[in-house]
What does this fold into?
Amino acid sequence: MREDDRKLDYCLKCTDCDSACPVMRVLPNFSGPKALGPDLERIRKEGIACDTAWLEYCMLCNRCEMICPNQVNPAEMIAHAKMKQPKRGRAGFRDRLLAGPDLLGRLCSVAPLFSNFLLRSKPTRWLMSKALRIGTERKFPKYGWQRVSIKKNGTSPHKIVFFPGCYIRYNDPHLMQAVIDILQLHGSVEIASTTCCGVPALANGVRSELLHALDTNVERLLPAVQDGARIVVACTSCSHMLKAEYPRLLSDDPQRGTMAQIIAQNTYDLGEFLLEIGEAPAAKLKPMKVRLAYHAPCHLKGQGIGRPWVQLLRSIPQVEVRDMGAECCGMAGTFGFKEEKYRLSMDIGEDLFSAIRAYNPDCAVSECGTCRMQIEHGTSVEALHPVEILHRALSR
Amino acid sequence: MIVVATREFDVLVIGEGLAGAMAAAAAAGEGCRVGLVAKGPGMFALADGCIDFEKLDPHLEPEEGFEREIEFFLTTTAAAGCEYRGRLGERIAVPTLLGTFRHATFAPLCFGEFDPRRLTNVTVVGFPTFFDFDARFIAERLMSKARVEGRQTNYSARQLHISWQGELPHLEIEFAAQFDRNPQFREAVVKALASVAASADLLIIPGVLGVNTTTEELRDIWGYVGCRICEVASLPPSVLGMRLLRRLEDLLTRTGVELLTGFALSELCMEGEHCRGVLLDTPGRPRRLEAEAVVVATGAFSHLLDARGLMETNVFVCGGALQLSEPRTENAIAIVTAFRAGTRAAKLGVQHARR
It folds into this structure.
């Protein structure tokens, strides 16, 4: 009996997972993780097709797996079922497109100013809504053109490979520079020549794209890790993918499964790295009088590393930071872009939006790029990666 | 195996059922730095939260009785906003989905303030979209039971019509989530309840009045409706159980307990007879949590840790993990043994911290 066959019997039908599901809380009649995961899995295992559109409503926030008292992984079962489900029509085509942000990023970065103009213009957005069912309310993030600079720091014994992820690589060069500047205080930094981490492919159920991501990234990250480098990631969805999903997705293959485990063991979220591994920064932190609303992304909670940035930001004199304590923001990467899910995405985020509005901060901070997009869209409060605050406190 | 991150506590509690929450509250009350780890909420969160001392094994009862433990439980739950009522030696009748009464020594106040057997007019209120709560069935059964017992209480059934433009939820947890989030929905529900309250001494309704609702807010709702309300626990996931857990979690956070939930325990770190802490199975690398004393409150179902063999110097086992419960007394055992485990662990934790 395989491990996942046993896990089906672990499900006691207690429905704790349903009580934790953010979609279930706002969408009446959504089947929920228990039904879509372990319940239907029994039927799927018999080889009986039970495609259901509800599978596409799972955001892959992993909250069901966290709350399960008995080690069942509904989100994982749903993700695998999604991959086997045929992708039909305009929505199916759109999902395939959204599954590969690396390709989109490379294309749009050929002429970023033109891409930005085109993607954000009204006729294009109308066309995307009609042809691809992408919500007209959403604006695509801007593509960046600035180059980042890395100092040669050959003498440092600490090697760091920075895994930027698509959002930072293509859309936020300014943030990329901030991360590199901070990381260079702790060792010699190299930018990983990797592709997308694969989260969008997993969430959209596009198997070919996911396999491509796994193959490419394992092959490109392993040599650096074997050379003693640590992988540092500044997006919590990417770091969660590398730490939690890679070993799981490759567990059937003993050789690559081991490689994925080695990579996972050496992957750090930026905040985790700075708090637990990095030495104290040489320069002193200058006081900054700001009020920050902090939102913890679901994929940070899934790593079990606490809230490193709350602690890090509080070490800057005069910074006031409060954890909004809200659940999912509702964006879930590409989920919130989809026309039929736009309203749902905003409803899920309402708890967070109202918490931020009530706190009335100078700025919101969160480690996840799409959480930040959602916060700015839902509250009109500027949202930054917390490292940008640290960077300002160091460089002023 | 690479282990990096380490956190230190005076007392570490394993398990987030009733026993875990009470032990953590007791240790925090003694001024300890407390951490609580759990892979999901316990069975407590699935049930109705009633506590029965009636059939408790007499050998658990010390000469001085349970007074301190019960006092601590009642003040803790009241501070958490999930007040209980009841007295040792007395019995409360709580209506169930099947139209019967279940008896308990202590019950959460959401079951109402008065005994539904001693009132004149009780109305069972059904919601049109719910499948597992049948108001007529419940009222008929309660009525026939009352007649058999020679009581004159009149139980009637009403179907509630909530004027609401949106689709009404079909599950209790969905209903409760709407009730928490949407003020207009809450108003519509309370208005609808008020419309059927006129001639009744008590309304029996499904347990749906919000997952985040405190006892004080419940009393306000009774005030608006103009009648006391008794909520009935549904099939899992029960809103009432989740509500108790939310309130207790909220209290623990307020008293400085760090909740590290969501990850399974991979091992206890033993050093001879002394437990140094635990390893948590977190993605990438396990996380090490160190503590001077450990409380094991993993419940009767845990397959991760067989607590019966643990007789270490600084490990205290309580609740279902003791494996001595008879049916229906698990919660009573939990509150008694958890208070003792929590305070003993705290003594050890504070001693070590001072050294």
Observations:
- The first helix of chain A runs from residue 3 to 10.
